[in-house]
Amino acid sequence: MYTDPIADFLTRVRNASMAGHRVVDIPGSNLKREMTKILFDQGYILSYKFEEDKVQGNIKIALKYDPQTKEPVIRKIERISKPGLRKYAGADELPRVLNGLGIAIVSTSHGVMTGKQAQQDNVGGEVLCYVY
Questions:
Q1: Residue 69 and residue 26: Cα distance in Å, rounded?
Q2: Which of 21, 85, 106, 128 would bridge with 16, disulfide CB 3.0–4.6 Å?
Q3: Are 39 and 132 in contact (CB under 8 A)?
Q4: How far apart are alpha carbons 13 and 91 in whole angstroms?
Q5: Helix or strand or coil: residue 105?
Q6: What global pTM score does this model have?
Q7: Chain segment 19-55, per-residue pLDDT in tens
């Protein structure tokens, strides 16, 4: 049993991409499903599949690599708000990641979304992670 499932999700994706794996399996949850959808919509992963085999299910993520250099598209993925120190930001305080080239995934009262979407909807929330 792990205490921080979001950090486990991010670590599995980071390790698989750095090792050059094509697919990574992750135990599912609703929050992880929403984060996976955001990564797909923003172009950081190739595809995903939700498998409902157990109580919580499973998420299969196909990682994306640059065709010429074979470098992973996800250069860095890091946890910001941790169980020991939560990081919250208002709608006007949401961070810009890598001067707009990366994304911040934010958990708001309107659901999980990118920092840019949260600013447009004028909602703040917990800054979960940065991806670039």
A1: 26
A2: 21
A3: no
A4: 28
A5: strand
A6: 0.94
A7: 999 999 999 999 999 999 999 999 999 999 999 987 8
